[in-house]
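Action item from last meeting closed. Structure (468 res):
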């Protein structure tokens, strides 16, 4: 069994649970069938076979006492061919015989049956394992007179009851195999649409270009796919409408801002400089707020490009502050597939936030074979652990550390969080060693654009093939 199949049927997966239920029920059914057959099928059959052997030997023993001369060649041949009983004149193989104990199984049952039926005959019984077939059972009848004549009968343990049990076990094994194959097929029919839906959920970010799920298969799967496609279409339409409205408002608001800026420049030269500076800062703040709101509402995903990761991060950081030095840890990254503009926006926002609320800012990059982590650390007041998720919401600022006096639109981290979600990056907020904030972006270096917006059916099938 391949590693991919083992991963697919792991215990916590739907396939694993389905296989566990089917396998357990089949095993219990097989065990119950074996027990019932042992009690009501095999045991009675074996007992009947023992009684028949005792009866046949009893007939021979009576004939031997009544008419010893009747033991001719024809009788002996008949007993061998029809009854599988061998009549001997002596114990020529006595050295190879051994007493019968409980460990001899069916031979011990034969011995008990013969001793019970011939309790007054003073019989002797032995086991013989020298033959290259089934074990032999020897029973010796004394003549009961002064002569030394004895009747020696040898019979082999019939394999029929054992072969019947073997056939039952083979049938159970075949049924288990057939059930397992059926379970795997049914599991595949159930888990494949669920896995496909999971990857479609990962790829959907509410933007245009989404490939709907195929509405094929059973009625339940078709209903699930249709419901998801309807939901995705409604969310995409909602986001598109929000983007359109925000873009319109942004355009309409920039017009009066431009007029106000023009009026500000036309004021007399003897106007109070402090008043002019205050107006200019307010206009700049309003313009930044409108730009951030438009960017947040747009929420578009950028197509990944092959970029030199080290050069890209260095240029982004130096654009904000040329004095900042990027600290690199781990392997030196080569070219990777990433969205450069989205990454530029995220890192720029994080560095600007860190510089705004802390005095000492550090940028660290840790690279492994699987991903790259960009850490922006500051020594500011930090973000309480209970507020680290809430701060990612739009227009949320902490009263103590992020207030209106320090500036900001309240959309910086929200924009970073949204871009990370769209591009399948991970955003984490923690505490820095200096007591401030450590904001980290994790970028999978081996994840291709298949899990991004616009995932095609072929791409999904390729992803599904990876887990098979």
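Sequence:
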């Amino acid at each position: 069994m391949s590693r991919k199949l083992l991963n697919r049927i792991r215990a916590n997966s739907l396939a694993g649970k389905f296989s566990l239920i089917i396998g357990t029920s089949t095993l219990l059914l097989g065990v119950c069938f074996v027990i019932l057959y042992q009690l009501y099928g095999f045991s009675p059959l074996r007992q009947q076979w023992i009684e028949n052997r005792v009866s046949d030997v009893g007939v021979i023993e009576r004939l031997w006492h009544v008419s010893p001369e009747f033991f001719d060649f024809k009788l002996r041949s008949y007993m061998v061919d029809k009854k599988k009983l061998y009549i001997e004149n002596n114990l020529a193989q006595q050295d190879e015989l051994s007493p019968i104990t409980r460990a001899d199984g069916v031979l011990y049952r034969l011995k008990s049956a013969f001793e019970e039926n011939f309790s007054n005959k003073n019989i002797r019984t032995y086991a013989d394992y020298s033959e290259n077939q089934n074990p032999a059972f020897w029973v010796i009848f004394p003549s009961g007179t002064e002569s030394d004549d004895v009747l020696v009968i040898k019979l082999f343990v019939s394999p029929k009851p054992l072969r019947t049990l073997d056939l039952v076990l083979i049938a159970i094994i075949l049924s288990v195999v057939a059930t397992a194959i059926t379970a795997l097929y049914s599991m595949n029919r159930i888990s494949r649409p669920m896995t496909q839906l999971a990857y479609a959920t990962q790829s959907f970010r509410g933007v245009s270009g989404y490939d709907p799920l195929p509405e094929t298969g059973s009625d339940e799967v078709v209903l699930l796919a249709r419901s998801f496609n309807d939901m995705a279409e409604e969310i995409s339409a909602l986001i598109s409408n929000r983007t359109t409205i925000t873009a319109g408002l942004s355009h309409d608001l920039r017009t009066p801002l431009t007029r106000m800026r023009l009026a500000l420049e036309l004021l007399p030269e003897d106007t109070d400089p402090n008043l002019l500076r205050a107006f200019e800062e307010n206009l700049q703040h309003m313009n930044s707020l409108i730009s951030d709101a438009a960017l947040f509402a747009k929420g578009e995903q950028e197509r990944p490009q092959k970029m030199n990761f080290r050069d890209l991060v260095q240029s982004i950081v130096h654009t904000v502050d040329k004095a900042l030095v990027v600290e690199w840890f781990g392997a030196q990254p080569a070219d990777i597939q990433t969205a450069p503009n989205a990454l530029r926006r995220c890192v720029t926002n994080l560095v600007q936030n860190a510089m705004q609320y802390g005095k000492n800012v550090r940028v660290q990059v840790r690279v492994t074979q699987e991903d790259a982590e960009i850490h922006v650390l500051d020594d500011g007041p930090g973000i309480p652990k209970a507020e680290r998720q809430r701060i990612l919401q739009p227009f949320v600022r902490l009263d103590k550390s992020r207030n209106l006096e320090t500036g900001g639109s309240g959309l910086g981290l929200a924009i970073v969080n949204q871009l990370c979600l769209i591009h399948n990056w991970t955003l984490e907020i923690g505490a820095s060693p200096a007591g401030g904030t450590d904001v980290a972006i994790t970028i999978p270096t081996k994840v291709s654009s298949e899990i991004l917006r616009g995932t095609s059916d072929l791409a999904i099938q390729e992803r599904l093939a990876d887990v098979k």
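Note appended to the action item: The chain is about 55% helix and 15% strand.
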